[in-house]
Amino acid sequence: MEEPLRERLADWIAALGRRQLIALAVVALATVGGAVLWYVRALPRPVEVIAEPGPSALARASPSPGVVVIHVAGWVRRPGVYELPVGSRVIDAIERAGGPREGADLSALNLAAVLSDAQQVLVPKRGPPGSETGSGGGAGGSDGGLINLNTATLAQLETLPGIGPVLAQKILDYRTEHGSFTRIEDLMNVSGIGEARFAELKDEVTV
């Protein structure tokens, strides 16, 4: 069975001319080459990854030279973090935040103070209008009256015994964050004022 097949194949090859054999060889080579090229193109290629800085990296970037970053909070129109030129004043930071809102107590701040990087400018709200002290005197207590914790300015608070600029500002900050004092004992909720210091103040203040 195999012998007739071989004879037929030999007769078929002998019947082909030289040109036909060359053509068949070219077709076979082209078929094999195409298969190889397709296989090579189908192979996975390495992907180049380019790393870009994310938001966290940008957030850690240092401020530009000649600039200070300031947090303006409290009773202003647009509280937030702002960049201002070195040498700017507190009033510049407030204006950058849209200016004070109606009822802001700017007298509690030193508007001419020079800003430093990472500083917070906290603008307090003025106390209720027409508030009276327990003795019937003015809020400042310049004539011997009591100091009203809800209307007193920074300068007026500094007149109290044992209260300097730092503690006076803390009292204003507490008033801004928590609202009006409801009783004089609330002073002990202010950081830096304990029972001993409150004992010195309780006869000098009112709400």
Account of the 3D structure:
This protein is an alpha/beta fold and 207 residues long. It has helices at residues 2-15, 18-42, 55-59, 90-96, 154-157, 165-178, 195-201, and strands at residues 67-74, 80-85, 120-123, 147-148, 205-206. It has a 3-stranded mixed sheet. Strands 4-5 form a two-stranded parallel ribbon. The N and C termini lie far apart (122 Å).
Helix-strand layout with pairing:
Layout: H1 2-15, H2 18-42, H3 55-59, E1 67-74, E2 80-85, H4 90-96, E3 120-123, E4 147-148, H5 154-157, H6 165-178, H7 195-201, E5 205-206
Parallel strand pairs: 1-3, 4-5
Antiparallel strand pairs: 1-2
Question: Summarize this, please?
Answer:
With 207 residues, this protein is of the alpha/beta class.
Q: Which features characterize this protein?
A:
207 residues; alpha/beta; 37% helix; 3-stranded mixed sheet
